[in-house]
Inverse folding.
């Protein structure tokens, strides 16, 4: 995402970091998480899971641990947790 | 491989889900699972012990909700989740009773029960997943299907006007009325949590896509429906219930519309009918 | 605070006696809807329940009334509703839910003449087959038929005990005449009233199966909040309570539902004999019609006709074996009931080659004893 201005105190703000966990075989490939991740962390993978869907995969390290994918996923197939030491 | 890192790890809601019944029956692209996840998140956020909750559902796709939550839960007959829940509530007022069901169940076959429970201010949290159709039976017209929308029983378009559910709830006496879409998952979870923690009849309408049986007939893919939820909605807390019809061309209003304090059905019954000493005794025994 | 059991002699009607029986049996929740001639049960419960720590609620219709008592029953208490024909029809779908979820409760039907609105203030026994078969699908029910206000009290307690013991709805099939008839009702001391409560589960909560048959083929039943996390569904379910859409699970579930009744008939079936020892003709009757039948037996005996009475206190499950035994030594059966032939079909089915007759009535009044005598005389002529 691009912003039209950068906050003056942006250097002082502690940005949370998260790590996404995907339980691939639960995924039914609806794409909610990929479409609505505010940091655009996810993309469809090329592989098939046990049900025959393409589960998402993590494409960058931009996750902020907002848990939105976790809340939106209808299948309990994705969640995030805090990542430290970045 | 990223997914290897998750081996042995668990989704944070797994203690609240009957994992031995997953995968659930909801189709790919269906929003009910998202509403359900928000609901479970709300239950967890309250920090109330799980055995002080019970969930009651009726029949239909959303009615399967009760089958997946790992607490005492009831999958009843079509339209009758609310009277079943009312029986529980009046017999055990200390329980948090959540009704999780669909629009057809709660407002067509179960409409009479809804208005009366609202009138009495029965202390229930009623979550209505509104997918605008009868999903489980194959997409027939519902009491919530938009005017002119196609369904398997209205091939030329719905000739009828749908309910404005928040208006119906308000007019019936509901003391808490809100509407979100499944895409507003965080607002929805917080809203359900607030509804659980307050006393009185709480009604939350949640718009949710049915890509297979509604979307397909109305040329709408699931992510297109979500885009409408994102682009064509406006959050307006305290909006008048009269302006809440679901029309995405005009824009659909979301938010918390009504939040009134009023004694609940079980409170008033105890105060008016139970002899004072009996009430004290009951409190002691709890 | 009023005592829970109003020990003493009372002059009350059948509906009121029914309510007192329920309170004495431990009923603490009543969901109702007004309907003639059952309203007095609800009225009495509305006054009595809050004084014994119970709850009365008048719901928006009979569907809601019936459903509410199932919800309340799962909180671990004894629950009841009362209605008449039109309301009974509305309750039928939920009766099926009660049966398949093995939820104990008592449903009182103070019958009036139908079909439809019929004769609201006049008695009949036209719902006797509806109570057996009215909900969809295959199942067994327990139905009792009181003949007097005293039995409205006594059998309501029996109904609660059976429902708790077998985890099933139990029906009191009364009628307007018994419901509105005032007679002496003796309510015993509380300690002399035998009450039964459902068996609660014990042992590991995570391994508990809410439909795994225990004693008598009946599973122990937890209450909401006990920590067993049970799932209760109207779908065909396994012993764990989970829906399984398979023929095998359907069979297993049906065997359990039917078995717990069919394998315990001796415990459930109650009948009363009157002058049957030497009878050539057996009157089979129940409820208010049994009073007619008593008179008919007396009058027949005065005429020298050997007529006796088998009174069905339990109508369902039907005492088939008893009829078959009697059929070996009697000349005819006459079923006395206020309908044009319902239980008589059951009697005839079990009577084999012994002829069966119906001394019926279209509804609205009792069967006159003369009608019974006329048939008896023709049979023995």
């Amino acid at each position: 995402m691009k912003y039209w201005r950068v906050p003056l105190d942006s250097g002082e703000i502690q940005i949370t970091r998260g790590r996404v966990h995907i339980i691939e075989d639960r995924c039914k490939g609806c794409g909610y998480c990929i479409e609505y991740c505010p940091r655009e962390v996810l993309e469809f993978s090329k592989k098939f899971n046990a049900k025959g869907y393409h589960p998402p995969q993590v494409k960058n390290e931009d996750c902020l641990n907002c848990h939105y994918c976790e809340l939106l996923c209808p299948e309990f197939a994705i969640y995030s947790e805090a990542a430290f030491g970045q | 491989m990223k997914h290897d890192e998750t081996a042995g790890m668990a989704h944070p809601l797994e203690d609240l889900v009957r994992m031995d019944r997953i995968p659930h029956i909801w189709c790919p692209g269906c929003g009910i699972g998202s509403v359900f996840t928000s609901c479970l998140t709300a239950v967890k956020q309250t920090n109330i012990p799980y055995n002080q909750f019970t969930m009651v559902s009726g029949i239909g796709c959303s009615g399967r909700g009760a089958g997946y939550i790992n607490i005492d839960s009831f999958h009843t007959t079509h339209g009758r989740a609310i009277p079943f829940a009312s029986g529980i509530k009046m017999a055990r007022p200390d329980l948090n009773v959540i009704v999780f069901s669909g629009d057809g169940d709660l407002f067509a076959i179960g409409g009479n029960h809804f208005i009366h429970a609202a009138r009495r201010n029965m202390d229930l949290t009623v979550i209505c997943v509104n997918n605008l159709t009868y999903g489980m039976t194959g997409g027939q017209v519902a009491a919530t299907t938009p005017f002119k929308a196609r369904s398997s029983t209205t091939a030329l378009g719905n000739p009828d006007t749908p309910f404005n559910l928040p208006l119906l709830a308000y007019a019936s006496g509901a003391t808490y009325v809100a509407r979100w879409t499944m895409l507003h998952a965080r607002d929805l979870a917080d809203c359900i949590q607030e509804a659980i923690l307050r006393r009185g009849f709480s009604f939350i309408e949640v718009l949710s896509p049915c890509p297979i049986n509604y979307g397909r007939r109305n040329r709408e893919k699931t992510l297109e429906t979500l885009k409408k939820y994102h682009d064509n909605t406006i959050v307006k807390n305290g909006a008048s219930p009269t302006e809440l019809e679901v029309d995405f061309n005009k824009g659909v209003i979301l938010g918390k519309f009504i939040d009134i304090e009023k004694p609940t059905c079980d409170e008033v019954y105890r105060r008016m009918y139970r002899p004072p000493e009996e009430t004290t005794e009951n409190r002691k025994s709890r | 605070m009023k005592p829970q059991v109003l020990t003493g002699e009372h002059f009350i009607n059948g509906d009121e006696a029914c309510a007192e029986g329920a309170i004495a049996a431990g009923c603490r929740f009543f969901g109702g809807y007004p309907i003639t001639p059952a309203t007095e049960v609800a009225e009495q419960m509305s006054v009595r329940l809050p004084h014994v720590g119970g709850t009365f609620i008048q719901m928006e219709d009979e569907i809601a009334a019936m459903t509410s008592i199932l919800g309340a029953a799962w909180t671990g208490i004894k629950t009841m509703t009362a209605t008449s024909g039109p309301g009974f029809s509305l309750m039928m779908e939920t009766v099926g839910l009660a049966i398949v979820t093995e939820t104990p409760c008592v449903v009182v039907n103070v019958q009036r003449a139908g079909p439809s609105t019929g004769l609201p203030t006049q008695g009949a026994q036209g719902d006797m087959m509806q109570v057996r078969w009215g909900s969809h699908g295959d199942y067994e029910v327990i139905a009792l038929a009181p003949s007097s206000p005293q039995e409205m009290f006594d059998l309501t307690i029996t109904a609660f005990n059976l429902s708790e013991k077998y985890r099933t709805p139990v029906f009191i099939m009364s009628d307007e005449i018994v419901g509105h008839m005032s007679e002496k009702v003796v309510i015993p001391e509380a300690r002399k009233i035998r009450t039964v409560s459902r068996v609660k589960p014990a042992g590991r909560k995570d391994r508990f199966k809410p439909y795994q048959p225990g004693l008598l083929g009946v599973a122990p039943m937890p209450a909401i909040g006990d920590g067993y996390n049970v799932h209760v569904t109207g779908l065909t379910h396994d012993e764990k309570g989970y829906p399984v859409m398979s023929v095998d699970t359907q069979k297993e579930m049906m065997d359990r539902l039917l078995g717990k009744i069919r394998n315990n008939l001796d415990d459930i079936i109650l009948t009363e004999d009157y002058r049957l020892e030497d009878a050539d003709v057996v009157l089979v009757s129940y409820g208010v019609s049994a009073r007619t039948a008593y008179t008919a037996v007396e009058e027949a005996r005065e005429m020298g006709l050997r007529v006796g009475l088998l009174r069905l206190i339990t109508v369902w499950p039907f005492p088939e074996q008893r009829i078959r035994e009697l059929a070996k030594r009697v000349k005819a059966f006459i079923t006395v009931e206020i309908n044009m032939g319902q239980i008589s079909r059951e009697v005839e089915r079990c009577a084999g080659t012994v002829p069966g007759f119906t001394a019926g009535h279209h509804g609205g009044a009792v069967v006159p004893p003369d009608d019974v005598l006329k048939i008896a005389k023709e049979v023995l002529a």
